[in-house]
Amino acid sequence: MSDSIPPSDTAESVTAGHPDKLCDAISDSILDACLRIDPNARVAVETMVKGTEGEAIIVLAGEVSLNGQPPNYEEIARLTASSIGYTDSKIGMDASSNDSCQVHTHITTQSQFISQGVDGDIETQGAGDQGVMFGYACTETEGTAELRGRFFPLSAALAQRLTRRLEIVHDEGIIPWVRPDGKSQVTVQLTDDKQSVSRVSTIVIASQHSPKAGPNWPAEDDLSDDERCQYIEQQIRKHVVEHAIPPSLLDNPEVIVNGTGSFPDPGGPYADAGLTGRKIIVDTYGGGRHGGGAFSGKDPSKVDRSAAYYARWVAKHVVAAGLAERCEIQVAYAIGKASPVGFRVETFGTTNSDLGKNPDSTISRLILENFDWRPAAMIRDLNLKRPIYSSTASGGHFGRTPTEEGLFPWERLDQSRLDSLRSH
Question: Which strand (E) or helix (H) includes residue 33?
């Protein structure tokens, strides 16, 4: 390998139809259904999917405790998979069919030994488990008008935009032969000091498609294999890449579509088994440190989820307030204990000069003065006891745009907290 390869940063993303993301979507749909019945529900649900020749299986396992009649787990699983596009065994799964898709449910109630430590008010509600969580924010997206306000790694932001666009292209039939399963990957070149992005260098797209993909689909076209691959690449470039990547960043990057030549049916759960929680880096920042805990299927009493959201929220405030260009927060909990047992801030030498000789210590103090890291307080501040989690199951949990309906509240900036941080 050449010594002259410039420094770079790479991130990937996967579509809702990727088998692992399909599992995340089912688990989060069950969570949302439980929270609609009881906002205080305790939920930890895992999903596994696998397609075989003409058949498929969905396995639901975990623990649910709620005040009310539990939802129909099997129905939720089938409807979720069908809504993503898995209604035909030829493309990987027909979740709508009782004959060709079996659903096995193994869901029990939460252990009383866990619940006795996590029920209570702000003073007494402890963490639902031990663990380490990370939150991160940076200024990489702030130089591009279409991405401004995200305070997110550029490679991850672009990879997410590509897969969300690929989902739209499938859902709206813009490219009618595109299937639900897909991936993206974006590499950006960094400056020699690795402190900023110089250009987008490589874009990779994998998109499952009909074997008959072509201008006259669903009729067969008289295309050679090479001509079919070229046509698929041209359509993905036009309707996905050029639509999702801001023009200012399309400085002649290398674009690779279906690098092995083609990705025809059957894909999805037929090509790969899926599991909840197997895309934790895709879900977060595209790289960097991660505590290891997955998000999907877990109610907010699980700090794997709520503390990771809170840490992102706080890190975004630090960067948006102008205290640093990069901020990573690590927080650690012990089961049943309300206050964190560990806390650390790292700004990688990007702080303002007026923060003193130990800027990370100063920022840490400001954070602890302005944000409450106890589980019940984090849930209160972000209003997390709501059915808002299905929307997080694909396209990334962070770097998203908060909505008027209250989705992605950890991305919304609080002006009073910004002012307080700035007045240090």
Answer: helix 19-37
Whole-Å CA distances, 63 to 9, 23, 45, 298, 381: 38, 16, 6, 10, 26
Output DSSP code: residue 421: H
Distance CA 331, CA 342 (A): 5
Closest by CA to 19, choosing from 356, 372, 273, is 273
| Residues 87-138 pLDDT 10s | 999 999 999 999 999 999 999 987 655 555 566 666 668 887 889 999 999 9
Give the number of other CB atoms < 10 A from CB of residue 368. 14
Asked if residue 60 lies in contact with residue 101, where contact means CB atoms within 8 angstroms, the answer is no
Residue appearing with tokens 């935009």: 161
Query: What is the pTM (predicted TM-score) of this model?
Result: 0.94
Secondary structure of residue 343 in the 3-state scheme:
strand
| Cβ atoms of residues 15 and 166 within 8 Å | yes
Length of the chain in residues, anyone?
424
Query: How far is it, in rounded angstroms, from Cα 161 to Cα 200?
Result: 14
Helix or strand holding residue 201 (H, E): strand 197-209
Q: 63 forms bridges with which residues in the sheet?
A: 44, 108
- Residues with active-site annotation: 18, 20-21, 46, 63, 183, 263, 272-273, 278-279, 298, 302, 304
Cα angle for residues 168, 170, 173 (degrees, 5° grid) = 100
Q: Which pair of tokens denotes residue 53? A: 């020749």
